[in-house]
Amino acid sequence: QVQLVESGGGSVQAGGSTKLSCVASGRMWSICVTAWYRQAPGKEREMVSSIRRDTDEAQYSDSVKGRFTISQAVNKNTLYLQMTSLKTEDSAVYYCAASRCGTHHFNYWGQGTEVTVSS
Question: Order of strands, edge to edge, in the sheet holding 18-26?
Fold first, then answer.
């Protein structure tokens, strides 16, 4: 099992920045990819960014590319999402997720942390 705990959400003004963290524990040796998802009220959950634990290769959705940066601690057990130039449409609950090696979906999820961007 893998446990994921997010932190860092809160309220921020449009144009501002904030950073989310996700501390992972458990059988992280079995995890190949971690990611940030978000879900706004009335909308489907969408992937924001993902990162391979072995290579640091990152991917971003078009909506956040150039504004958000995903990274991981040296020990690979903390995931970060640096969010800049925030827009009101970035308001959502942000979830940390982990995918076991050899699978093509995310098996573990955190409880989520809410980010509210006001104009």
Answer: 2-7, 18-26, 78-83, 68-72
Q: What angle do CA 89, 6, 44 make, to 5 degrees?
A: 40
Q: What is the pLDDT of residues 44-84, one digit of tens each?
A: 999 999 999 999 999 999 999 999 999 999 888 999 999 99
Q: Which residues contact 42 (CB under 8 A, 6 or more apart)?
A: none
- Kindly give the residue spans of alpha helices, DSSP state H, lying in 1-119: none
Neighbours of 107 (CB within 10 A): 13
Angstrom distance (rounded) from CA 44 to CA 49: 16
Write the CA distances from 9 to 12, 23, 74, 115, integer angstroms. 9, 14, 23, 5
DSSP, collapsed to helix, strand or coil, labels residue 31 as strand
Task: For residues 92 and 76, give the distance between their C-alpha atoms in angstroms, rounded to a whole number.
Answer: 25
